[in-house]
Write a structure and sequence with these properties.
Helix content is 38%, strand content 17%. With 361 residues, the chain is of the alpha/beta class. The strands form two sheets. The protein has a seven-stranded parallel sheet, sandwiched between helices.
């Protein structure tokens, strides 16, 4: 099978999927150059059955936008794919390509079927238009969880019966053996700090744990619009280590291996790339029971789930994991095994190929 992947965001995820597919198929992958440099640290090269094309980002006001449209159409015609698979991201040079893809089955992965609370919920009109056009075009849609599939079909009824669930795979470089070499009591809050990430509930839970005399440390690594509200408090409390910057790929392994527990106190979510990193590095997870997180964070297996916006429940769950070495090691081992078994990229590629075959027939 010949597969064209259009992904101008989610570079790390998309490259992993492309490599998984390329073991059995010919794959053409388009990436956004800036996003690839940010997430991967470099622009990937062609591999045996994988061709990679990286395009610079332009808006419709820039002449390079039309050049991108022409290059995508030209490369796809030359490659002659059996199916085209887009990651949902809104670009002025992606929407104009869609009419030229009508003769080929189109699959769309929707990462966030509805906007998160906070800044993500205020989409400009042009973005809303791109979203409407893109979601009107596919023959099939991929989402990362059964609960998300049900919500997507309810939210977008014209797609009912054409939405498929495929797991989200591991992210990050997890080479090396499984080790429980974390620093005792270190909690990791990682990634972009938007309102839906629930940082206030973690801060409240930490105050509860400090009141109980629990020796913990909290690493907050990332940037985002909601961090400014908490910066002064975090910097003034020695319990916290604040790394306020975009974390390059080379530094991610150290942060996750240092962590005793990865914390996801989200108020709402679909899936989580942070949970994917936790699987890669074999770490216990404590998360809110929102979206389809329970399909990656299995309660009592590789972590614990708590009600969203509930600081007391979050504190209780964190205390249970941090103070129970046997539980921590069991959760860590299950995270490691889950990422290399049920949620490995070869299985995800197999499930995705099944969707391709269904729309091709």
């Amino acid at each position: 099978m010949r597969i064209a992947l259009l992904s101008f965001h989610f570079a790390e995820y998309s490259l992993a999927l492309a490599r998984g597919l390329s073991y059995s198929h010919q794959v053409l992958l388009f990436l956004g150059a800036e996003n690839a440099l940010t997430e991967l640290g470099n622009l990937p090269f062609d591999e045996d059955s994988l061709r990679v094309r990286c395009l610079r980002h332009y808006t419709f006001r820039q002449s390079g936008c039309l050049g991108n449209v022409a290059e995508i159409i030209r490369e796809i015609k030359r490659f002659a794919p059996d199916v085209v698979h887009c990651q949902e991201i809104y670009r002025d040079y992606l929407t104009p390509v869609l009419p030229f893809l009508k003769r080929r089955p189109l699959v769309l992965t929707i990462h966030d079927h509805k906007p998160h609370t906070g800044t993500d919920s205020r989409l400009p009109i042009r973005t809303r238009l791109h979203r409407f056009i893109l979601r009107s075009a596919p023959d099939a849609v991929v989402v990362h969880g059964e609960r998300i599939r049900e919500e997507t079909e309810s939210l977008l009824p014209w797609l009912r019966g054409r939405v498929y669930t495929v797991p989200h795979g591991m992210l990050g470089d997890g080479a090396g053996p499984f080790q429980t070499d974390w620093e005792e009591g270190v909690l990791l809050f990682f990634g972009r700090v938007n309102r839906y990430k629930g940082l206030p509930y973690l801060v409240e839970a930490v105050e509860i744990l400090k009141g109980r005399g629990l020796p913990i440390k909290v690493v907050i690594a990332g940037i985002g619009p909601d961090l400014a509200l908490w910066r002064e408090r975090l910097l003034s409390d020695p319990v916290y280590t604040l790394i306020e910057e975009y974390i390059p790929a080379t530094r991610v392994p150290h942060l996750f291996r240092q962590a005793h527990v990865v914390v996801l106190p989200y108020t709402d979510a679909t899936q989580s790339g942070v949970a994917s990193f936790a699987l890669t590095f074999g770490r216990p997870v404590v998360a809110s029971d929102v979206g389809s997180l329970r399909e990656m964070v299995r309660p009592g297996v590789n972590g614990l789930l708590v009600p969203a916006c509930h600081s007391e429940a979050l504190a209780e769950a964190l205390e249970r994991v941090v103070t129970n070495r046997q539980m921590s090691e069991r959760f860590a081992a299950e995270s490691w095994a889950l990422g290399r078994g049920e949620l490995c990229w070869s299985r995800i590629a197999e499930l995705t190929t099944g969707i391709y075959r269904s729309v091709m027939s």
